[in-house]
Amino acid sequence: MLTVAEALDRAQMLCDAATRAGADAADALYYCHAATSVSMRLGALEDVERSESQDISLRVFVGQRSASVSTADMDASELAGLVERCVAMAREAPEDPYAGLAPGELLFKGALPDLDLDDGSEADPEALRVAALAVEEAARAVTGVTNSEGGSANHSRTRFALVTSHGFAGGYGASGHSLSASVIAGEGAAMQRDYGWHSAHHLSDLETAEDIGTRAGRRAVARLNPGKAPVGKVPVVIDPRVGSSLVGHLLGAIAGPAVARGTSFLLGKEDRQLFDSAIVIRDDPHRLRGLRSRAFDGEGLPTAARDIVAQGRITGWLLDTASAKQLGLAPTGHATRGGGASGVSASNLHLAPGTITPEALMADISEGVYITELIGQGVNPVTGDYSRGASGFLIRDGAIAGPVAEFTIAGNLIDMFAALEPANDLEFRHATNVPTLRIDGMTVASS
Fold first, then answer.
1. 328: left (phi > 0), else alpha (psi -120 to 50), else beta?
2. pLDDT tens sequence across 25-38
3. Domain named Metalloprotease TldD/E central: which ranges (predicted)?
4. Burial profile 165-191: b = 16 or more Cβ within 10 angstroms, e = fewer
5. pLDDT class for 78, splitting at 50, 70, 90?
6. Cβ count within 10 A of residue 70
């Protein structure tokens, strides 16, 4: 794994070589991820795994033609050959009127802020083994847990560096820690499985093994002996651990590439009030220790906090340079980069909490469902039609009444957004965080 400074040097070398070879512009991106994980099952060591992958990608532009190549070989002679191949490929590529680097005047300038993404830790397999054993033991200690799929602990390090030929150079490193357990309750055909997990950049921010494991065990036991969900149009309450997927569907619909292709169900609805006027969804890329925090995007543009939904309305599209050109707009600092063309993504997201507790949120529901798991990918990004398998709990007379399984929930995301009501229990635990959510009028059917 290269240091950030070494990665920036290699990326700069590639960009310089590309312009010398005849490219009009270029950018180079280095990414490396090293991870160590230990898994325990039934108190015994099941697996120890160490992986490390690194990649450097070069993208060049010759007029309106472009090409991208990548390699894991950091040898100087290999990188020199990479440049020649990439420029030759670009000369033969079809013209793209939207190809090009981000506008130079919009590039990030100045010193990068310290977002505290790296705690300086190194992988300790013995400490990981102890943590994996502890999280599994905590889950197995819950009365009713009968078997285990295991506990695991992971440590990772990441390096990222981006250089462009028109003046941007930036990089950062991050550490990662995660802990999880998955256990089974019950016997035979009546068995039920559930899990608990958490991840953080700093080990000091990670939940305890006891909390994670106990949560996994209690969730599995709570799912035993499920009944049938009520059918028809009923109120649906969504647990925070799965409610974030609704924000994901919104992001897909406001992503510039989807809008430019005409494949978003929100196309033509950008001025419409989609949510209740109290709903706010915020993108916060500078949150200290945030799982998706970043000072610059995949094209070297500065990032900034933004309400992507304010007063119930979307505030615009999320744009990289190519989709911004297609739509006649300016890029928004949401580009992501892999080995080739850029994509679009938000950073740390949260849906602002409401004013009432989850208990009050469901207090007037005579019969409904509380969703703790969603299954399948039954969402049409063009129409917004939504249909997914689910499991969870029956709500009867305003309280959780027992587990239910093997049913589907269906609706249209436009209607679902309009009916969405949040509770006040928002916690910042993941990259996308939402409180408990209620949506009235969804169709529930038996699977």
1. left
2. 999 999 999 999 99
3. 122-224
4. bbebbbbbbbbbbbbbbbbbbbeeeee
5. confident
6. 18
Torsion of CA 12, 4, 101, 248, to 10 degrees: 160
Determine which helix (DSSP H) or strand (DSSP E) holds 261, and give its type and residue range.
Answer: helix 256-261
How far apart are alpha carbons 274 and 312 in whole angstroms? 6
The residue assigned the tokens 């993941």 is: 430
Q: What is the CA radius of gyration of the chain?
A: 24
Residue 439 token pair:
């949506």
Strand partners, 227: 404
Neighbours of 376 (CB within 10 A): 10
Tokens matching residue 115: 């977002």
Of 237, 264, 253, 41, the closest CA to residue 152 belongs to 41
Question: Strand 306-310 vs strand 281-283: parallel, antiparallel, or unpaired?
Answer: antiparallel
The two three-digit tokens of residue 89, written as one number: 């490929």
442 and 422 Cβ atoms separated by less than 8 Å: no
What is residue 427's three-state secondary structure?
Answer: coil
Q: What residue type is assigned to position 309 of the chain?
A: V
| CA-wise closest residue to 268 among 246, 253, 257, 279 | 253
Pairing of strands 367-375, 385-396: antiparallel
- For the chain, domains (ranges, CATH) are 4-221 (3.30.2290.10), 225-245+353-446 (no CATH), 252-347 (no CATH)
Q: What is the DSSP letter of 205?
A: G
Strand 232-238 vs strand 349-351: parallel, antiparallel, or unpaired? Answer: unpaired
Burial of 388 (0-12, 13-18, 19+ CB in 10 A): middle
